[in-house]
Design goal:
749 residues
């Protein structure tokens, strides 16, 4: 085996040419000697096995080695030689024997400690003796120098440190790049699998759910309001009609907070809205649609649109309009802002008039635009049916004008006029005062929104005496000529009843009792029948039950059964007190007498009109006989005596026509004491004409007149005359030309 080169016999470093003497050439420029001191300095090594000087290591010229010797420095003028591997060598003494001095341990340089990774110190071993020197092979193996000893620090007088071999470095181990790549790929694959799983969940498992949510976000339901049916009079003149209008709405999400005040300042005065309420509406969170106003006129809507306010828009709709303002407002009622009837016929017949609203669902983009070819669902609206009334516009106007004038003149609390056809039960006029304008119902008193003609109950007073007359004549054997001696007061048990004015005892026929409207005489005549007979007759004439008119809030009046009457109730009931009725009920009583004793239930709605203008009449009203035709004729003749000069209502006479009627002056119960003192009066008059062929009935009621007379013959009879005269002319009813009967007022002895 080839022996590795030692320190003294080291071969040239790799890449250097060996000379003839076994040395490599010097690295200095311009010098070609292959021997001498320069060569020794260049290599810094001994040749062969020449002995070392005792004072230290020699460099080949006998000069002691110094720190940074030529072995560690570049040669002068030449390139830096590559380091050569050294083989351990034996240190010999003078005679070639091994030197017997102890081995010197070299300290580690501080500079190397800073530059190299700290190593675990090797375990000290005893130096091996023998031909290989005193330094053990383990140390040289650790330093990577071979089997021989490494260089030692010289102990000579030169003080040069010993040569050091190449530094050993701690190896830096990196992870396997293929392993790192595999881990990275696994992480990426895991993340992508999560994405893929979520994508599968969204597009397959839960696709229906999110599709539905997305569709709900885009879909918007648009209401398609139905055209409300018109309300007309008997000739088709509109009393309530539907016209084109606009609804103003807001999208609060599009109105910045800084713009809200500008929007309120522009819309509040134009639409008549409360600024605070409007500010609250346009500032609602989490909403994109809120109505601000309904029924806006088209010209107002165009003005609002021209302002280009953010988030404000208009939609087409319909507005209810009442072309005759307050005419028949208490009967017709009105439609509120939501499009629903809120009073009168508009409320009670809302289902017929309103029809059925439709709707349409369309896809709307975020900027509010309709998405073409998007999902579109539609249910068309069904127009409402029109309602034709039995009222006649011109007659209604005259009746309303007359009662408003009298209420104002007498300073009455309220008043009403009813015109009725007794043969058919049709109501031709229903006027009340004070009234309101349904076009601006919000500006009027809420207490006026009702229908006082059916909602207000009052004691009929003397107008109710005709029912007692019918009862005693039908069931008590009383005739118009039956005589009575009538004082101005009468005592029944512990109660005293009086006539309307003091007078000495009078000898009157029953016709005279009715003509003079004597309470005492009526009480005397009523004693010919029982309480039950009186109650039954009152019920037959419609007392205590509703008329059945399609008006909200109708009162049936007050009529207790005889079992609940006190010992004296039958007497005031006989002359029209302690019972109550509404105006339509009382008008129906006189219509029954005028119709020969046959009661026809009052009728207000003539029929309905469909979309094709086809008229469908209402069912015929119920008819029932209450009294005989003979009794009805006799009572009618007796009522003509009321309008004579000897009766209580000469102001009700109409030139050329025979007029029958009855006055009423009833006391109003004072709610503070539950008595009649200080409660005021109800003045009324009910009659019909022509008396011998009745075709029209007119009833007038004034509640608590304070100026002038409070008697029915003075306060209500003139209104009757005014309205009846106009009605006879408008209905083209000529005078009969017959002579009125002679009514015997005073009884003959």
């Amino acid at each position: 085996m080839t022996k590795p080169p030692g320190r003294g016999t080291a071969g040239p470093p790799p890449g250097r040419k060996r000379g003839s003497d076994g040395r490599g050439p010097r690295g200095s420029a311009g010098r070609d000697d292959k021997s001498g001191p320069g060569a020794a300095r260049a290599s810094g090594r001994h040749t062969g096995n020449s002995p070392r000087p005792p004072g230290g290591r020699s460099d080949g010229a006998g000069r002691p080695g110094t720190k940074g010797s030529a072995a560690r420095r570049p040669a002068r003028g030449g390139a830096v030689p590559a380091p050569r591997k050294e083989t351990p060598r034996k240190e010999t003494g003078t005679g070639g024997a091994p030197a017997k001095k102890p081995a010197v341990k070299r300290p580690a340089r501080k500079t190397e400690q800073k530059k190299t990774t700290p190593r675990k110190p090797a375990q000290k071993k005893a130096p091996a003796k023998g031909a290989s020197g005193r330094i053990g092979a383990g140390r040289t193996a650790r330093s990577g120098q071979g089997a021989g000893p490494g260089p030692r620090r010289a102990t000579g007088g030169s003080g040069r440190p010993p040569e050091r071999g190449p530094r050993s470095r701690t190896p830096f181990h990196r992870r396997d790049p293929l392993k790192r790549l595999n881990v990275a790929l696994l992480v990426i694959a895991f993340v992508l699998s999560l994405f893929a799983g979520r994508l599968v969940q969204l597009q397959t498992i839960e696709s229906g759910k999110y599709t539905e949510q997305a569709m709900r976000q885009r879909l918007e339901r648009l209401e398609l309001p139905a055209i409300r049916g018109d309300i007309t009079d008997a000739q088709g003149h509109p009393l309530a009609m539907t016209v084109e209008a606009r609804a103003v709405y807001a999208d609060p999400s599009l109105i910045d907070e800084a713009e809200r005040q500008r929007v309120v300042n522009a819309l509040a005065p134009t639409l008549g809205l409360n600024p605070a309420t409007l500010m609250k509406k346009i500032g609602e969170p989490d909403t994109r649609f809120v109505y601000l106003a309904h029924g806006v006129r088209p010209d107002q809507a165009r003005l609002i649109t021209s302002w280009d306010l953010p988030g404000i828009g208009t939609r087409p709709e319909y507005r209810r309009e009442y072309p005759n303002d307050s005419l028949a407002a208490s009967v017709i009622g009105f439609v509120n802002d939501t499009g629903n009837g809120a009073a009168g016929l508009e409320s009670s017949m809302n289902d017929v008039l309103a029809g059925r609203d439709g709707w349409q669902r369309v896809e709307i983009s975020l900027d509010g635009q309709h998405i073409p070819m998007g999902k579109d669902q539609k249910r068309p609206s069904v127009p409402g049916r029109g309602v034709r009334l039995t009222l006649e516009r011109d007659l209604q106007f005259k009746a309303q004008e007359a009662i408003e004038k009298q209420v104002k003149a007498s300073k009455a609390k309220s008043g009403s006029v009813i015109v009725m056809d007794p043969r058919t039960g049709e109501l031709l006029a229903m006027a009340s005062a004070p009234g309101f304008d349904p076009n601006s119902y919000g500006e009027s008193d809420k207490n006026l929104w009702g229908s006082p003609l059916v909602q207000e109950a009052f004691e009929p007073g003397s107008t109710g005496k005709v029912v007692t007359a019918a009862a005693v004549m039908e069931k008590g054997g009383v005739t118009p000529q039956t005589p009575y001696t009538v004082p101005d007061k009468i005592r029944k048990y512990d109660v005293v009843f009086r006539d309307s004015h003091p007078h000495p005892p009078e000898r009157l026929t029953f016709a005279g009792v009715l003509a003079k409207s004597s309470n005492v005489g009526t009480i005397m005549a009523s004693e010919s029948i029982t309480q039950q007979q009186l109650y039954t007759t009152l019920r037959d004439f419609g007392f205590g039950e509703k008329t059945g008119l399609p008006l909200p809030g109708e009162t049936p009046g007050l009529l207790k059964p005889p079992g609940q009457w006190s010992g004296t109730d039958r007497y005031p009931i006989a002359f029209g007190q302690t019972v109550s009725v509404n105006a339509v009920q009382m008008a129906s009583v006189y219509a029954t007498i005028a119709n020969g004793g046959v009661r026809v239930r009052p009728t207000l709605v003539a029929g309905t009109v469909g979309e094709d203008d086809r008229f469908t009449p209402s069912p015929a009203p119920g008819r029932e006989r209450v009294i005989s035709a003979k009794t009805a004729r006799q009572i009618s003749d007796m009522l003509e005596g009321v309008t004579t000069e000897e009766g209580t209502a000469p102001k009700a006479q109409i030139k050329g026509y025979r007029v029958a009627g009855k006055t009423g002056t009833a006391e109003i119960v004072n709610p503070r004491c539950g008595c009649y003192d200080g409660g005021g009066y109800t003045a009324s008059f009910a009659g019909f004409a022509p008396a011998d062929d009745p075709q029209l009935v007119v009833q007038v009621v004034l509640q608590d007149p304070k100026r002038g007379s409070h008697y029915g013959g003075d306060a209500a009879a003139p209104v009757f005359k005014d309205v009846m005269s106009f009605a006879l002319q408008s209905e083209k009813i000529p005078p009969t030309g017959s002579r009125p009967p002679i009514i015997q007022i005073h009884a003959r002895d």
